[in-house]
Amino acid sequence: MLLVCCFISSLSFTSCDAMSDNMANWGKKTMSYRISPTSGEAAIYSFSGQTEFRVVKDKVEGNEFTAYFVDGGRVNFVVFQNTDFQESLEDGLYDIHVYANGVTLFNQVTKSTVFIGIDDATSISLLETIGSANFDSVNTSGAGFVFNWGTSETYKGKDLKSIKESGITTLRVIHSLVKDISASDDDDCDSGGEGSSSCSTTVGGSAQSTGCSVSCKTGYYACCVKGGFFSAQSCKCKKEKK
Asked: Could you tell me what percentage of the chain is helix, strand and coil, using 3-state DSSP and rounding each to the nearest 5?
């Protein structure tokens, strides 16, 4: 899964307001940010607490941006594939709203607001619905957006620290918990597949479910692979075959 203001090419962020305007409009931004879109889709998951970030470069899949947070017993990975992120966000306390086609982040300390989405009309529409003026930074460069959730057991104890130490992308690590990626990375999709822009896979009921969902930009297709109660599900965007 590889969204609009004035682009800052070096960091791939967009600056929506001058610094003086940020200070003047801060009260309005805070209230607006915490309100769900007046129309369209609602957030599929919301969280407030400690969040960690990571950017890793992959020669095949491009730069990958990951946000990681644990909500009670639920372990969450928010991943953007093939983005133009060059630097990660600062770890800390955030309010996060996860949508099907993007994520909003509010830093509780710096009071900065960030929108991250994919390079597709679906993310642009979401941004317009929420209101781009509510964000200090916007990045809609991703080819794919993946939301993984599970438990520590689902991910066999893997956290962001251990994934960083692995030296490979977050999605490659998660996929390795489903299949042996050293044997083949061209796996069959249990859902999604050629021509699909999104898919999801879930195991268990709503209270104890584990699973993942993915949305992709044009030129990529969504691929989801089933896991089980104690094995991770794998969702990602893959380039359409020419």
From this structure: 15, 40, 40
Using alpha carbons only, what angle is made at residue 173 by residues 168 and 177, rounded to the nearest 5 degrees?
155
In whole angstroms, how far apart are CA 17 and each of 22, 24, 138, 182, 242? 6, 10, 11, 46, 41
Residue 19 is classified by DSSP as: H
Cβ atoms of 172 and 238 closer than 8 Å: no
- Whether the CB-CB separation of 203 and 142 falls below 8 Å is answered with no
Q: Please count the helices (runs of H) and the strands (runs of E) in the chain.
A: 5, 15
pLDDT, one tens digit per residue, over 65-113 is: 999 999 998 999 999 999 999 889 999 999 999 999 999 999 999 999 9
Cα 198–Cα 114–Cα 102 angle in degrees, nearest 5: 10
pTM equals 0.80
SS3 for 46?
A: strand
pLDDT digits (tens, 9 = 90+) for 183-201: 445 558 999 999 999 999 9
Query: How far apart are alpha carbons 70 and 68 in whole angstroms?
Result: 7
